[in-house]
Amino acid sequence: MKYEWKKQEKNLYLPKEKPELITVPKQKFFMIRGKGNPNDEDFAERIGVLYSLAYAIRMMPKQGYTPEGYFEYTVYPLEGVWDLTEEGRKLDTLNKNELLYTIMIRQPDFVTEEVVSKAFENVRKKKPNPLLEEVTFETMEDGLSVQMMHIGSYDDESHSFEQMKGFIKENDLEITTLVHREIYISDARKTEKSKLKTVLRYRVHHR
Q1: Positive or negative torsion for Cα 24, 85, 99, 28
Q2: C-alpha distances in Å from residue 158, one per residue of 99, 124, 201, 206
Q3: What does 128-185 look like in DSSP terms, one character per residue?
């Protein structure tokens, strides 16, 4: 049976529309870093490179190679970790050109360095792209976190962040870093802004 992250990992990807405390385990990702407005073409190109690698692994058995421990699965959603440049932090309003980001797509646990090398090899042959040189394969562990589902435009996320900060204060927690994670459950190209689903997450610790 196909592994569906929406069903098997609901706690990570389909939280309620109110803040909750969760512990996020170690996860493996293809990642690429960047700077600037996420509406720019450069951002879209970086997303494209990540998906080409993610699908290269997903489709490996059809290309004649089955990684050890492989199982049928749905490709994980795009995620982003967001920060601001020093200049951007000084401003009273958000200037999207001053955003720093790491976007990423999670990989199943069976994915090893060897499998990753094969994925790069396949993509370089079929879809060569200079941005491939900027992609890394890394393990991350968010650990104790506060998260919630935000429904609506990305530009309205501040309301959800305020709710999360209230929950963090009430539960005697502190945000570990102002860098936050977003998990894009909806495809922004096919979903109207008012219905976009985005998981928002802060890493926290007890005071």
Answers
A1: negative
A2: 15, 39, 13, 23
A3: --GGGGG-EEEEEEEEEEEEEEEES-GGGHHHHHHHHHHHHHHTTEEES-S-EEEEE-
pLDDT attached to residue 98 = 97
Q: Coil, strand or helix: which one is 64? A: coil
- Helix intervals (H) in the chain: 5-8, 10-13, 41-58, 86-90, 113-126, 157-170
Dihedral angle sign, alpha carbons of residues 28, 32, 37, 38 = negative
C-alpha to C-alpha distance for 96 and 42, rounded to whole angstroms: 13
pTM: 0.96
Q: What is the pLDDT of residues 98-109, one digit of tens each?
A: 999 999 999 999
> Which domains are delineated in the chain?
5-206 (3.20.80.10)
**Residue that the structure tokens 């069903």 belong to:** 7
